[in-house]
Amino acid sequence: MAQLWMQLTSLLDTKVKGDDELYQLASKRNAELNAALVRVEMAKDASNGVDVSEADAALDKLVRETVLSPDMYNNIVHDTLSPGAAVHPRAPRRGNLSNKLEDYGRYKTFQHFLSDGKLLSPTAPCFVISEGGAQRNILTDEEYLGACIGMCHNLSKHGVTRASNAVDDATAVPFIKDARDAVSSVLEELLQFDFRNGPLRRKYDSLKYALKTLETVLYELSVAGAVGGHENLVSKEDTAGDGGPAKRMQIDGGDKGEDATMEEAGDDSMSIPKEEISAIRERMDHRDKLREKLIKTCRDGQKWAKQAIFAMHRGDVKKASKLLSDCENCVKNDLMPILEEEPTLRYGSFSGVLEEYVEGRLFYSWLYGEEGKGANGSNAKAAGKILLPDDMPLSISTEDYLGGLADLSGEIGRFAVARGTVRDKESVKLSLESNKAIYNCLKMLGWLPRSVSKKVGGVGKSVEKLERLLYEQSLMEMTGRKEFASSVEQAPEGGAED
Prior knowledge:
The chain is mainly alpha-helical. The protein contains 13 helices and four strands. It has a two-stranded antiparallel ribbon with strand order 1-2. Strands 3-4 form a two-stranded antiparallel ribbon. Helix 1 packs antiparallel against helix 2, helix 5 runs antiparallel to helix 6 and helix 8 packs parallel to helix 10.
């Protein structure tokens, strides 16, 4: 058995290091993109001596290399369905790359508005790349919306800067009005979305403050112009007859629980790509329906995996085998088609199902051996076998396997306690050896995903409990008693307190 555990540790070490290398590669690219974005911002300041066109070209090239590189994506869903498949357009990006590409979109949309006075479309040439005869969007729908919101905040900051020189700059007030109208239009369009709680919802909630800033600047410039005799700053639409702020229109957020105030803008239908934004809204609504369907279906799969574990503790081998098969069919037939269409749903509820399934399948193999050949309807003696990741009936990630392996220690501990009540010292000893092997395996791997690393401490405590249980079993064996409660107390880590 020791050889099998060493084989498992070596295999997991290779997989974990491979995943970590890809993560580090994405982190390095993230830093390169950040530096490129800083350079283009510096290039806008002539005193820095940085060529604007050269910095822009370098940024565009780096973004295209990132988008076209398969290593920058976690394409696990489609790699599972078809090894070597092309990266799916909705495959999640590794590391923090999604935020950096959103920053890229924010920069491009802001610069385009400054030059043309319009919001850049998600299908604009700078946001589309040709790949193998097909076109691929640089930004996802969520990244584009985040970029638009970021652009609005840039307009708010830029409006304050332009307002500082409004007396000498005749174009300052018209620009701030155009910026105000554009932010109003973006907010009005986004009010039609049903954002769920998350990063994009929080960004949307901040948009009203950008609008308020621009409205306040226009009002204050108008008042200051009237007092100081600067007619070019006075605007009738920004001050009422009594010198107070102009009346504003309330826009009800409905179910979103938000009320946004905005000025009554003119016809700005050409300043933002309403049709494209509406299409994004429809796609996001469809993805929300897929997400709800997946979450509901995951409940069944996870329930069957949990019930299979309960059945194994009762010694009901046939029911446990059937429930594990039901879970497998649920994943293959009901969940995978959803993920094939929307791979961003791979993590969350679906990962929970796989982790629970891995725990159940590992426990089944540990109790009854490979394919349950040792199953005889009794848990009198465990086989002690461990199933390798590549031997799993379902394709799983390294993180899913590690999470299930860590949770397996808990089931082995429960089995050991049950066998300890009938004074089965050998089963307790096997359980302790198995949990020690799991603990050592996880410790030897070093770097672990966050969801797994927080479970390592629990595995260690399980080992300590089984060591104590085995000690008490030995005392009963030596004394011939049916019960023997040890008075040995476990000192807290770091030494006993005075």
